[in-house]
Amino acid sequence: MRINSIGVLVRRRSTRRIAFTLPFMILMTRLAVAQSYDILLQGGHVIDPANGIDRVMDIAISGDRITRVAPGLPAEQAKKVLNVKGLYVTPGLIDLHAHVYGYSGSVFPDDTALLAGTTTVVDAGGAGWRSFDDFKKKIIDVSKTRVLVFLNIVGRGMLGSEVEDNVEDMDSAKTAAKIKENPNQIVGIKVAHFGLPGWTALERAVEAGRLSNTPVIVDDKIFTNSGRTSREKLLRVMRPGDLHTHVYNDRQLEVVDRFTGKVQPYMFEARKRGVLFDLGHGGGSFLWPVAVRAMKQGFLPDTISTDLHSSSIMIPQSDMANCISKLMNLDMKLQDAVARSTVNPARAIKRFPELGTLGEGKVADIAVFDLKTGVFAFKDAWSKKLLGTQKLECVATIRNGRLVADLNGLGFPRWNTAGEYEVIP
Amino acid sequence: MKIRASRVQNTPLVTPRQSQPIVPPWTRGDYRGVTTMETSAHLPLTPSLFKEEGHLRSNQTYGRCNSRQIARRASHLLALLLFLASPSSAQQIYDMLLKNGHVIDPKNQRNGRYDIAVIGNKIIRVGENLPSSKAKLVVDLSQYYVTPGLIDIHTHFDEQGAQLNLNPDHNALQSGVTTAVDAGSSGWKNFEQFQKQVINESRTRLLAFLNIVGAGMYGEKVENDVQEMDVDAAARMVKKYPQTIVGIKTAHFQPATWEAVDRAVKAAELSNSVVMVDFHPKPGRGYSELILKYMRPGDIHTHFYGRLTPQLDAQKKVQPYMLEARKRGVLFDVGHGSGSFWFRIAVPAIEQGFLPDTISTDIHKDSIMLPRANMITTMSKFLNIGMTLEQVIERSTINPAKAIRRPELGNLSEGGVADIAVLELQKGQFAFLDSGHGKLIGDKRLRCVLTVRNGKVVWDTEGLSLTEWSNAGPYSNFK
What residue spans of B179-299 are helical by DSSP H? Predict the structure, then answer.
């Protein structure tokens, strides 16, 4: 895996794959012409980094699938037309680090994710192998948002330091078995908040990752004389493809040398090895002094994620659109930010090309954004603000082919011309 | 050597009081331990990076006061003396001064530019030109409206309860709502659990209508079961928690009898509280009878712009019994929800002057999505139908406070609790959906930019109360 000019994680063999699938894609588009569309997104600026698309195009949806992506599609063939001229259309965002179960600050995914353009959230360790079934029943199966899971290496999940420091409950084999039982929901393993000295928690998580062939996402605790160093963690314990979240924190990783302000050489070395770095904004992990310095020196997060929970949601608003806006005001390009919020997380959790792209035939998870200009304040986790000039706001979200959020009423008729309407879908 | 030893004894290196906040750098993060205290003090530190105050001070506290400290202490002392000597020393220091906002406070008949001073959790003064020099924090609100913290009397915030309920803080405070009333999610059997798990934990002031159904809103079967409606038990629970329970709710009752309304009213009579009614008319159980006969003055019919109740005739005229019921003192509440707010009913009613007594949301997991039934959006809808800002604020602050008999809320009186909303009135083109997803295009939209609850800023989208990071000095994790 490597990163191309706009930050997309790419596999080297991708060109061969495109050559192989191209005839099928042409065949599919031919078939699609005859169909009528359920929804047509007309005239939006489409950004689909995985397919290298960055221009005005229409997107047609039938059922739960994207059927065509092309300019000038016929509006008369569509049941519902959304005029998204002047707006940006992207794959539904993937929030790689969310909390929707187990953890005391967890939030319900739909009202927090879908309204911000996020169609897939990955719960980061709320449940362990003991509590996953309950999680599935109570949240995963009832929410409109696609909920995927990093399973906590701790069997009982994220229930506070007593439970999370209990090495006895970190069973690599049982964790791996649970993952193999639920490959559709579980994408990897989370190790978090381990407060004891040594590498036991990380090593057990990595072992479970090896047994189940999934990545590990690391959220390390502020540790005291534990003998763990950033260098050893990144260069020895973690594997290529594993993720370290909270990259712009200063207590989990020493990203920036605290005396010189320079990004530590081992960060670049770890990146070269294939270790991935995730934003994980949260309530304590996005700090202007770290983010500004790291970004100036070219150390950007591979994936953008929120770590959204009950306290960080009150940092207005620290959802995906807000995290992207913050990075854009530190000079990240929108296209680049979209890549790090769609195709990159999809690849990191091995769900690409099924997720994170607007390819024809793919599931219709789509977000529409308005990029506003003006003066806006953005607050970091330590309650300090940065004044910026750009702000990305979600306007509409389509999940599984259904319009679930529509803040500008783009997809609905006026009340006084619609007759005695029932609830309009 | 001897002399040195005695000097050390006389001036201990670390006094117990000083030693408290010190966090030696090697215990923080993955400090690699190459620098000692002495060398780190001489390194060219990047000033605002990473240093919690304890880290910096640790160099100074290991030894006697250096000259800088002495100078600082002296200047503090001087400032204190000057302050005590000044003629205005009788004036209090404000914790927060909300400066120059356009205040709309219907109870105190204020509608204009005022400053609001807060000390602790109380509003201390409302006046013109209050001195900024007396405030620890000054927030310039010259571009905004300042209103009492909003009151939403129809919410579903029993987060641990039924499936559709939402988290109070995330959904109320962002809208400027500082007081929310849960409308019957729980009954006498599970109210105490609700109180323990949610009410006591939330920053929003959360009050409740107790469902007349013992188990609360737990599905059709329970809610249609008259045996579940224990009047005495419900009344006892209301009387046990007069601080939190404001009345009785009856909702979703399908059998064609008056049993649910009757029992709710009885429980309210026994507990001297109000009833909120969600009503599904049936043959033999008509709407006009409900509002003219069964409900008492002061009781609240919620969802009154909904499709279930016949508030308009075929010509879209407001029915005479609506006006008569209003005269009797029955209150009409919006309760937007995912089924109870339709432009084709609300627009003609409001054009004929039949405004809601109280604006509320019936916010839950469905209504929050396409209809955006949060408080600030619901208020914006009324603004665009043609109500004035003052009318909208009145129906979201003082009116609901009166309806739930909490006159101490919904105002900005001096001495009252500091629950305050700061709103932006945006101009432009905006679209709003009703419960059926019909669209109204309007030219105004309200947005909550800052919320103060109990004297604390709990929501601040524009960073009005914050400093910029580059000017913030040593970055501290301790708020």
Answer: 191-197, 220-223, 231-240, 259-271, 287-289
